[in-house]
Amino acid sequence: MNDGGYHRHMVQQALWQAGYSPDDEAKRTGLQSFWAELFEYDVDRGENDQARSYLKAITDPYQIVRLRADKRYRQALLDDSRYTDKDAVTQRYLDYVRAQATAQPRRIAAMHMLAEALRNSGQAAESLAVSDAALAKVNSAPAGQPAFDDLVDNLRWMLDTRAKALSRLGRWDDALYAAQAARDEAERQKKDTASQAINLGEMLYRLERPQEALRAVRDMNENTASPYGMSEVAQVKACAYAQLGDKAKARAATDSLLENPNLDPESVRAALLCMDDKDGLAKIILGRLEDPLTRNYELASNQGYAPRPNLTPFLATMARRLDDVLHRPDVSAALARYGVVESYAITAPDDGVW
């Protein structure tokens, strides 16, 4: 999270000046929130021309959304004609990740990013096709001659992406199987086992299988997961216990999230929606909008994104509850005070805007 700290800004500046660009496409995309923060810093100081120099490194449409949504930065962004057309921004990103996948044929991470972008732009079938093509190469490669150079770090994420594409197509049984495969691959490699176990737990509670969701994360603790990961574990527990009718345990898990609500705001949101605590969620949203450091992340979370297709009944209930909160007079007034809410052809990001 952006804490507004001087040292954070200096690190970002040093990375920019060094031209830092990791080989892993997923990590490269993750840096774009840093460049967006540098843009904000210079706009706040009235140095708009310098600020716009960072835009060349921001291709992720969700980072553009958060700048576009915030009245402090909207005009400085839109003064660059490349960002006036929302659909053109999305298409440029699709073109970019497609080109990266072509240019990096030995990196499954590049294929993973293309599959993610296709899914988020409403092309779930195309996303699945990209995942399946990459996995077919993995499975057909001769022993000792892997199809990609980064399978140890990124095969599990391609399997995870495949699960999400299948869920968008309404193939929930297949999606669950793919999520289990991602978890199994993480355990086989002994790499970030927490993330895939948590993602499996999230899918299980969305399918209203709370006992299985709890079993998926039962081995997670401070020694096996990061503080962020433990926030996601708390989300799974809050939602699973809410489905089981155990209000005390659901509230305890939610309260643990509320001790640091900005560590993982998407998990806070999910837990409060699972609890049907609309007042609690409205309070969180209002607080994040009032805080200059979290404002445009919250604005970006509440845009008019394209609806996700083939929701489970429980996810449909969650969507209705969120819509109720966003249309409360106090919340809608705060959104209008600080930002602009627009319609987008892309779906909301699975893990929030960071």
Automatic annotation (TrEMBL):
InterPro entries recorded: TPR-like_helical_dom_sf
Entry protein name: Uncharacterized protein
Organism of this sequence: Paraburkholderia piptadeniae
